[in-house]
Amino acid sequence: MRPMRPTTSIVRVLVGAGALALAAPTLGGCAFLNGLFGRKQAAPDPESLKPLLVQTLSETSASNAVLPVGNTLWVATNDGLQRWDMKKGTMKRLGVADGLPADRILGVAVDGKGALWVVTPAGVAHEEKKGWAKAPPAPVGSPLTGVVVADDGLFVGGPEGLAKLQKGAWGRMLGDTAITAMATYGRDLWVGTKGKGVVHVAGEQVEVYATDQGCETETVRGLAATPSGVMAVGDGPGGERVAFFDGVRFYSYKIDMPPKVALEWIRRVGDHAFIGAGAQMYDLQRLAPTDSLPASAIRVTPVDPRFLKPAPSGPARRDLPGPTSTDTALSAAMAPPPPPPAPAATKSAARAAKGGGKAAATAAKGDGKAATTADGKTAATADGKTPPPAAPAAPPAPAAPPVPKYDDPPPAWVLSKWGPTLPEGVATVGSDGATLVVGTRFLGAAKVEQAGITPFATYDLAADAERLTVACDEPASCWIATGTTKAWHWDGQSLAPANIDPEQGAKILAVVSHPKGAVMAIHAGAGDRFLRISAATTEGTWSPSGMTQVEVPTGVPAVSFARYAPTGKLWMGLRYVDKNGDQEDYGAAEVDLDHFTVTYHRKGGGLGERSRPLPNDVESGWFPSANEEWFGTRAGAIHVSGDKVVTYGENEGLEREIVHGMLEGRDGKVWAATAHGVAKFDGVRWQFPPEGDPLHVRANSLARDRLGTIFVGHSGGVIAVRSTGVEAIDSKRGLLDNRVIDLLADRQGRIWVLTEKGVSIITR
């Protein structure tokens, strides 16, 4: 048995932000934590005092594009086109089986008739009454940065330029200029580029606006047609910039954003122009001359006070012309249209007399019809008869809004924080002018409103999950398996399928980190009673690890846990589903991959000399040293020291004999996760926390990070037992839901948590 350190009876808990209050008068069970916090301890590592951060993943496929259209939300993913009913929250997925060229969807658009355009690597599909009309792939490179339907065709932008689809054929535009953003304004197309400013395309006419034309966003990250005009956000020679085109010329502005905060996108919603910067949205509003700058607003400062004069535009070209300024015709096209003329009261237009309106209006061209004086009296006709009453005169037409001029001062703007915090990993933004939607790399899509976020996610990462295993060969290179037919690779930014076993129906049962750094996978075919063990290669493929085979008597094998011991051996709990569909327990297997041997530990015959009589229903394993092992089973806790095997159950204080996880706590005791709480072993008996104690929960898993913090997974979230106290982590702190299924620590000490809706990563 492990020697246990003495404890005292004093509770000393420091409670920080988000921690559970452990006041003795309200929680009588706090004495259970005496051994943890009662002793005089060394000053905690400053890093251990850092707040715990939660990052959450729910989707196995990123959102490549999002498009709201009324109550429908289209989400383009690598696994099909999702069509969401935003009122009902229901989703239908479209792909190859529905007539699309590919399941990987790069972009989506809707034309003026409401028909759908879908862009894939294998081609473009256009929705028609009889099905889908197909066109070749867009010749713009990858990834796509914009898909827009204009009056005269479909435009697609990418790193290799702009392409226009007409009558089933593509025409190239703008050479190899990298396209970064696209928007329509009226009948025209506006394009953001990388390093060459903003491009205006009107038919065959192409014009470019860069610093010389007052547009300092030479590398555009976002572009939108707002109620005031075209606006672009991005980088220029002077740094972060917002550029505004009022129909006549561009103005550029500097925004006093916090350091390292980039302006990433801009979209129009109603009469607002929203700018995104990280997890925060901002409302960009135009100020009237009489408005004052609100105290909480972010300053927007014009950076180019010069009033540039128009220069003649270059000839219409299909490739990118040199920088030019706007011309008079473009200015007129962008200016507000004049009001229609007022209808005449009669066929003869009444002309108002000067001088106070008392002189009579003459009859037009001597047609003998009655004319009306300006004061409303009827004049005599040429034949002297009294004319009939005339129709009332039309009211005066309202004055047209002033057309911007080149010598107008720069318009004033104000930027204010708006709305809720955005989901993590925003990759694309869409708006139909009334609704704003963001698409993310690993959390699906979400509708953004002032009152909050409405998610539209499939939660497929946790679908049918049985347990969680994670193996990392680098901090930003981890493989995830949940016991299903799929596994994924996480690069710190997004998830991608891991092609571990290409056989149809094969299951990826677990992934584990080899002590020397390699990543191993345990998998099984759909009808094979042998387990396969493969290693990840540097090329991203998987290679079988020699001839080592782990087998079960019949049926399909499964594992309850998998981890390496300090001896370098791979341990796994074994189960199998027999031919009748019943699950049978099969003890544990100890695999030596270097010598191609397998030792089975269970109760039954046919075992080797090194086999130990472990219960068959092993749930978990913990290996504190090369000569000591602990196993959690459905019949209690098993301690193995050398050749000695001791079973602890109800007689030794285990109120519930099903032990889901074990490890050494901060107090030096052995902790066990059970449905009655976290039990602790003092060398003789197990002690359970009383009701009211923070650790009196339905615990199902335990993990410890590199700084010694213990994490307890339970039916209501995660409990972190830190050097400063006990802290609750739940859906309010970032978990997708509170029903924790499993958790573990990776090689870097991060805690991975599997819930019913996804996987969360807890870091400092």
Can you describe what's shown?
- By secondary structure, this protein is mostly beta strands.
- Among the domains are: 59-137 and 424-455, Methylamine Dehydrogenase, Chain H; 158-163 and 177-278 and 280-335 and 407-420, no CATH class.
- It has two helices and 58 strands.
- Strands 18-19-20-21-25 form a five-stranded antiparallel sheet, with no helix packed on it. Strands 35, 36, 37, 38 and 39 form a five-stranded antiparallel sheet that branches. Strands 1-58-57-56 form a four-stranded antiparallel sheet, with no helix packed on it.
- Strand 46 and strand 47 (644-648) form a beta hairpin.
- The longest helix is centred in the middle third of the chain and has 7 residues, at 328-334.
- The two termini are 34 Å apart.
Stretches where pLDDT is under 50 for at least 5 consecutive residues are 1-29, 36-40, 307-386, 388-392
Name the helicity range.
under 10%
* Portion in strands: 35-45%
- Output the strand order for the largest sheet: 18-19-20-21-25
Q: Tell me the distance between the termini.
A: 34 Å
Give the integer mean of the pLDDT values.
83
* Strand element count: 58
Largest sheet: 5 strands, antiparallel
Radius of gyration: 36 Å
Shape: elongated
